[in-house]
Design brief:
single chain, about 190 residues, alpha+beta, Topoisomerase I, Chain A, domain 4, Gyrase A, domain 2, 2 domains, four-stranded antiparallel β-sheet, 6 strands
Amino acid sequence: MSDDVKDLVTSTEKDMQKSLEAMENDFHKYRTGRATTGLVDKLPVEYYGTWTQLRELAQITIPDAKTIAISPFDKSSLKTIEKAIQDSPDLKLTPLNDGKIIRLNIPPLTQERRRDLVKLVHKRIEEAKISIRNYRREAMDMLKELEDEDMISEDDHKRGKEEVDKSTQKYVTKADEMGARKERDIMEM
């Protein structure tokens, strides 16, 4: 296989991996009934006129399975952080501010909310698969173009297609596996 084809396959795999990473990052935002820093670490907080992610303003810890503790580096930002949490449409959590630390108690999910989250997971899996298939299509178009311009042989084109198809199948399967794990987490009581 020519270097051009190898580079194309490698580049396509990196793009497919990025699709999975983006999906996994989105999964961290879905509440599973257990406390996780992923629920709040990217929460935007207005800090001295600049929007800053919460993880840059505070230490976020999980003291137990149902509690998130937020300990700001600058105690004067407590009220601002508390307001950002209250105003967040995704969290729907009430912060408990004791003057030093903000605690978030994670209530158990209702069965209906669990089903809604599973639907979101399935939608996000499908989006990731579409993205992976789009990278496949782009790679196939590029292989065809390289062959048409006599930059690669017909055999290299065929081997390249086989490699891209293998990569596509591998990443689609990984997306399904990651989604199944997240679904189990959500449905677990």
